[in-house]
Design brief:
This protein has 312 residues and is α/β, with parallel strands linked by helices. 34% of the residues lie in helices and 23% in strands.
Length: 312
Amino acid sequence: MQSFADAKVHPVDWLVEEFFPRRAVIFITAPTGMGKSTLMLHLALSVLTGRPWFGFTCTQGKVAYWDQDNPDSHLTENRLCAIAAGMNLSEIPREPLSCLFRTRHRIDKEGKQLLGRLKDFGASVLFLDTFASINPFNENDNTLMSQVMVDYLFPFAEAGITVIALHHPAKEILLATPRQLKAYQRQGPNAARGATGIPAACGTTFNMVLDDQKRVTLVNAKPRYGNPPALSILYDEHGQMGSADWRITLKPAKPQASQESAEIFIQGMPADLRAEMSSRRLVEMMTDNGYFMSQSTASRALKKWGESAPSH
């Protein structure tokens, strides 16, 4: 135990700045066919290579991908190659280490052994594709689901391994008339299928939704580590699956603003608005003007402007 008086300020340690904290359990909920596996494989390659993820800084590290959902293991390999081509990688690097695997057992039988192997491996992140395929228990049982999170997933986070689990959204049935049943998809922090104990136990949760322009948008539904902007994503695909020319390119729907462009934007503001400007407000204003920017970039731009602004 620790005294309140011994508390210290600890900056958030990000796997992906503003989006995914390290050493946490993160759930991403999306309907079938929306591209959640493709998006996560793109994230996995970004972490592996240390490249920014849609302009947001990644902490480079070893990656483990538990592909228990797709019946054809070649599908995931083909996707990896196609996404790597879309990222203009001539080849997927062997260092840092990465592993793509399946198991014969689910998390109740595999958890402790897998944790030991991944600790020895030095994994910084474990992707679960999907939670339903590795969970043997009734996901509608709130007590069981809380226990699964605490007993089987938290130990990975406590060992320094970020867990990113993919899941499906829930639908609730309403009795509209005696002859007609009406179903609607749950939204917000409880969008995930199953008991509410699943998202409640997570560090943070995200939903993938279709926006008004039919673009896939990643929306933070549980802003425990801050409130990242909604990230709209464009998918572009060329070639044919299973061929060497298959290429999948993912990019943000809005152009990424640089620190320099943010500084120019600040310079054009009225003096009274500029004096009260925060990094969060600057991100919102840049978004309103059609640009996408991280809060850390906004903070650097404000700091640089403050250092270079003429004093009176």
